[in-house]
Write a structure and sequence with these properties.
By secondary structure, the protein is mainly alpha-helical. It has three domains: about 190 residues, no CATH class; about 110 residues, no CATH class; about 50 residues, no CATH class. Helices cover about 70% and strands about 0% of the residues. The chain is built from 19 helices and two strands. A two-stranded antiparallel sheet has the order 1-2. β1 and β2 form a beta hairpin. α5 packs antiparallel against α18, α7 packs antiparallel against α17 and α7 runs parallel beside α18.
């Protein structure tokens, strides 16, 4: 029940901000990022497609929509609560402190092993609002030790450490401390056990270094990559062939057995399911976010085109390649609205990274790299739906919107103070 109340708190906070604006007879202003309209259109479209899809389970669809969008309203409400750059900076530091705390717990678990990890194992639960049950990966008797912090599972912990890398990159003061933090977070991601998040972290770090380098170094990095990556892949493939294949082993990622396994999961969604879906007229509007409905549909209509071994795992793995899951749920219309909202946030953050305001530049940098990171992760996980990652991301978006509003207010104040006394009098 407590977890459900936390999810609802963002909606309640936005409702309070709207009510205050109505009571005070002032307009309810949008953030300036221009993502609210396409996102609200997406939200309404998701609800509409769930209602009008008569074969869909409305409770299941509603649960999926709720989980995906539960913290978006927090981002919309924060600019009306966090109304100064000092508050933006303090809250940003507080979020980073939460990540550091998770990293400290992860280090204790890495050093102490299974005994310490057992102290932080969570209880499985059922959501009283949505009816969904949650069984944490740390409770499933897996044979490997997984760093979980206090997040409940290694995926959520890995997400938090990747966010730690992003916050470290965006620090107002950079130096050797930043390098040490990046190394710490990358190490904890590796030992958390998630190969997908570790590879995403390496890609994100490479993109960051590439974006900071001069043109001549960028060219050199590209040339080196073209040589090193094929050689490294060949070496890792040979090493993987020399050891016993285990799905949880990092080296197994480069074995031929892994490719076969992934063809029944993520690669199968991309190379088998997606081409078939794009040829279906239903791809325009989507099926609704009810996986059971989609599973029945593809068994009835695609069974001749798709292998049975792939179809047998479809229900459990669809969201592991989240862009294709979005396309299945909401069609081209809904997916376009979803990514349009993200693009508008991304475009604004890309521009504001070089702002004269240190607080705005930091907030924009966090959001810029977080959007890149969360979209890379979505190719191998349900990153958009993860509670911790979603909360931190949309809180960061809200703080970025607050920083924009505060920066604009300061600029307007400076402009007003720069006018002559007679000019200022005329504007009152």
């Amino acid at each position: 029940m407590a977890r459900s109340l936390v999810d609802l708190s963002s909606i309640l906070l936005l409702g309070m901000a709207v009510a205050a604006a109505i009571i005070q007879s002032r307009p309810f202003m949008l953030s300036g990022l221009r993502y609210e309209r396409p996102y609200m259109l997406f939200f309404c479209y998701a609800i509409a497609i769930s209602i009008f899809s008569t074969q869909a389970n409305l409770a299941t669809s509603g649960s999926e929509i709720f989980v995906l969008n539960r913290f978006v309203f927090l981002a919309m409400a924060l600019p009306y609560v966090v109304n100064s750059e000092r508050k933006v900076h303090k809250l940003t530091r507080f979020l980073f402190a939460l990540i550091i705390l998770q990293a400290a717990i992860g280090m204790l678990q890495l050093i102490g092993g299974q005994t310490v990890i057992d102290l932080f194992r969570p209880n499985d639960y059922s959501n009283v609002l949505t009816g969904d049950s949650r069984s944490f990966t740390s409770n499933r008797g897996l044979s490997r030790n997984m760093l979980i912090g206090s997040m409940g599972d290694f995926i959520s912990f890995g997400y938090m450490m990747l966010l730690g890398m992003i916050f470290a990159i965006a620090r107002l003061k950079r130096g050797t401390g930043t390098f040490a933090l990046l190394l710490l977070f990358l190490t904890l991601i590796f030992f958390s056990g998630s190969r997908t998040i570790f590879l995403a972290a390496l890609v994100l770090l490479a993109l960051y270094v590439f974006s900071r380098a001069r043109l001549i170094w960028r060219v050199a990095m590209v040339l080196i990559t073209l040589v090193v990556v094929p050689i490294g892949f060949a070496i890792l493939t040979q090493l993987a062939a020399a050891v016993r294949f285990e799905y949880t082993n990092f080296l197994s990622l480069f074995s031929t057995q892994m490719i076969s396994a992934l063809m029944n999961q993520r690669l199968g969604h991309l190379f088998l399911y997606l081409p078939t879906l794009l040829g279906d007229p239903m791809v325009l509007i989507g099926f609704s976010p009810d996986r059971s409905l989609i599973e029945r549909y593809i068994f009835e209509n695609y069974s001749q085109q798709l292998p049975y071994t792939y179809l047998a795992t479809f229900y459990y793995t669809l969201e592991d390649f989240y862009p294709i899951a979005l396309l299945s749920y909401y069609g081209l219309i809904g997916t376009a609205l979803f990514y349009l909202a993200q693009y508008r946030i991304f475009a604004g953050a890309k521009s504001d990274r070089t702002s004269d305001s240190p607080v705005l530049a930091q907030a924009a940098t966090i959001v810029f790299w977080a959007i890149i990171g969360i979209n890379i992760l979505s190719l191998g996980n349900q990153s958009f739906e993860n509670r911790g990652l979603s909360f931190m991301f949309w809180t960061s978006v809200g703080l970025y919107a607050s920083a924009i509003r505060c920066s604009h207010f300061k600029n307007e104040l400076k402009t007003t103070e720069a006018r002559s006394p007679s000019q200022r009098f005329k504007t009152i």
